[in-house]
Amino acid sequence: MSLNFQEVKRYPEEETALLSIAKDQLNEYFRGKRKEFDLPLKLEGTDFQKSVWKQLLKIPYGDTFSYKEVAEAIENNKAYRAVGNANNKNSIPLIIPCHRVTASNGKIGGYGAGVWRKKWLLKHEKANL
């Protein structure tokens, strides 16, 4: 399963119970009512990617960590570039909040869905603390 930002709906989707719950939780997030997602996650990736994604789930709503801080938290101090690559492979952004990772100097950096979206998401979270 993946979650992607799309300008228009490209194809019909089968409405499953899990998809319905995920949609409800995403709507709550965008209304500023949900700070964490409560969905069963089946992470598919390398052991390193999974360790990064699990760490991203620990970043508090409205807060940011640097790539270096994430690397240090998973006890792989020099792997900050690899952390960025793992972020890029995250197939469920928002649910695994890769938008909360910034450069050490606080700059926003890249985001697969567009830097403008990352800025918007961070601003949205700060406004709804």
Describe the protein in words.
By secondary structure, the protein is mainly α. Helix content is 41%, strand content 3%. The chain is built from five helices and two strands, in the order ααβααβα. The protein has a two-stranded parallel ribbon. Helix 2 crosses helix 4 and helix 3 crosses helix 4.
List its traits.
single chain, 129 residues, mainly alpha, two-stranded parallel sheet, 5 helices, globular
Topology summary:
Blueprint: H1 17-30, H2 47-56, E1 65-66, H3 67-73, H4 80-88, E2 101-102, H5 115-127
Helix pairs in contact: 2-4, 3-4
Overview in brief:
This protein is mainly alpha-helical and 129 residues long. The protein has five helices and two strands, in the order ααβααβα. It has a two-stranded parallel ribbon.
The termini sit apart by: 29 Å
General shape: globular
Radius of gyration: 15 Å
Order of helices and strands: HHEHHEH
Helix content: 40-55%
How confident overall, as mean pLDDT? Answer: 92
The stretches of 5 or more residues where confidence is low (pLDDT under 50) are none
SS-derived structural category: mainly alpha
Strand content: under 5%
Spatial order of strands in the largest sheet = 1-2
How many DSSP H or I helices?
A: 5
Q: How many strands appear in the DSSP assignment?
A: 2
The largest β sheet comes out as: 2 strands, parallel
